[in-house]
Amino acid sequence: MNRLRGLPGTLLLRSLLVVILVSILAALFLDRADRLSEQVQQTARQQTIGQLNALLGLRLLKAASEGRLDRLARFDQANPFRLLSQEGGFQPPKTYRGEIGNEKQAREPGWYFDTRNRTLRWFDGEQWLPEAWQLRLRYRDLDGDGRFDPGRDVLEGLGMKKAAG
Questions:
Q1: Phi, psi of 109, rounded to the nearest 5 degrees
Q2: DSSP 124
Q3: Which of 37, 58, 106, 139 could form a disulfide with 123 if both were Cys (CB 3.0 to 4.6 A apart)?
Q4: Rounded Cα gap, residues 26 and 154, in angstroms
Q5: What span, in angstroms and rounded, lies between the C-alpha atoms of 17 and 1?
């Protein structure tokens, strides 16, 4: 008779241990899945910047081959998504949300171009990520006037550069 009464208690203890073990494993899995999700999103953001740099490099080569380096001055600190769209043959990513003049205007996760400081930033839905990107025309200002002059300055590149957030 003692054996029969001990059995339900043992079964309850075993069930409790299984529930605890499953809970611990689920918590570990969810934590790992959350970290992997963030890594995937970070990789996607890096790919977007990489694609922008590749397209901007092609625009630079095109302007150089046409002898139209003077056209590149308008690229400096411009919205790269808008600029490349106007040039034709480019569709901004689905995560591009548009231009804003105030960070509080952001409503959903995605890329935003901040018109105040001329930077491209990512909003995760709750907060702004610290890194910001700015389209920069890189050149040696040989005449010292602070702007690119195709006949006088040496062009070094065009691309996205990390800016202060």
A1: -60, 145
A2: -
A3: 106
A4: 58
A5: 25
The per-residue pLDDT for range 111-123, each reduced to its tens digit, is 999 999 999 999 9
Asked if 156 and 140 count as a contact pair (C-beta separation under 8 A), the reply is yes
pLDDT tens-digit series, residues 47-102 = 999 999 999 998 888 888 898 888 888 888 999 999 888 877 788 999 999 999 98
Range of the domain at 10: 2-163
Residue 114 CB partners (closer than 8 Å, separation 6+): 99, 100, 101, 103, 120, 121, 132
What is the domain count for the chain? 1
> How far is C-alpha 152 from the geometric centre of its chain's CA atoms?
35
Q: What single string gives the DSSP state of each residue in 12-31?
A: HHHHHHHHHHHHHHHHHHHH
Return all residues near 81 (Cβ < 8 A) that are at least 6 apart. 52, 92, 96, 111, 113, 120
Distance between CA atoms of 155 and 64, rounded to whole angstroms? 10
Angle (CA) 51 109 82, round 5°: 45
